[in-house]
Amino acid sequence: MKKDCLSLKDLSKDEILSLIDKSIEIKKKIENREDYKPLKDVILGMIFEKSSTRTRLSFETGMKRLGGDAVFLSSRDIQLGRGETIEDSARVISSYVDIIMIRTFEHSRLMKFAQYSAVPVVNALTDLLHPCQVLADLVTIKEHFGKLDNLKIAFIGDGNNMANSWIYAASVLGLNLSVATPIDLSPSGIVIKEAVEIAESTNANIELTQIPYDAAVNADVIYTDVWASMGEEEQTARKHALLKHYQINENLTKDAKRDYIFMHCLPAHRGEEVTADIIDGEHSVVIEEAKNRTFAQLSVIMKLLGRD
């Protein structure tokens, strides 16, 4: 029976930790220019209903580095859910390739596609979740601190797909996560409910607050994202008004741990969700974080195809 990677909540703690370790192993092999081609003859289908620089480059170059190949399909190339049903698109596209990644809007579209696909499907972003990004973030944190336990991770800003994904990750891994959002921009209620249930067995500490300072104080990791995501342009003014006190700046970070790291999934808007001195400063790891997308996603692909 095929396996998909649609949400981190569907994985166990051991599975996520194994993916993190595999990501670091793959990174070392690639950076050392080893002859390592475990994805030889594998073709990845890449469906983009939402465009992205990092997602396309990280998946496509990663496949090529490990001996595989990738086929790019934009919304202009296919009629997913428009001229053709999602069910038929899934059946047809999955007959041509070995594994598929999808970057789309509604999470329900991803779920339906995965249901009818004959090959594994990877969630490369939906409006609800972005699991591959958080997996890359966890790789970055593990590399920097040498651990994930006993760290305070603060997510500050919009309660979007990144906040939702971090809440799931923290609940499964038993992490200490503080999420600060305005009440009108809170994370998904369904995600919170499910995460609380998972946390009962993992002893995760997930705090939801409306006060950004409470999240930032004593934080080892401070994370933010853009205030208005792709497709939310009409909400820009409203979100900026609600989030103006949630900017990551020197004043907000002054009581974080002295060696804290700043993270952002990019692209970033300097002067909005974060000031330039923070994202370009000594605490920022955003470039390495972006680089780690490749290795995290390759570890997922290898796991789903049984080539790990």
Q: Give the count of helical stretches.
A: 12
> What about the largest sheet?
5 strands, parallel
The name of the CATH topology of the largest domain is: Rossmann fold
Fraction in helix: 40-55%
Overall 3D shape: globular
How many domains, as an integer?
2
Report strand %: 5-15%
- Give the uncertain stretches in residue-range form: none
Measured on Cα atoms, how large is the radius of gyration?
A: 19 Å
- Report the CATH architecture of the largest domain: 3-Layer(aba) Sandwich
Lateral arrangement of strands in the main beta sheet: 7-6-5-8-9
Order of helix and strand elements from N to C terminus:
HEHEHEHEHEHEHEHEHHEHH
Number of distinct beta strands: 9
CATH superfamily of the largest domain: Aspartate/ornithine carbamoyltransferase
Structural class of the helices, strands and pairings?
A: alpha/beta
Rounded mean pLDDT is: 96
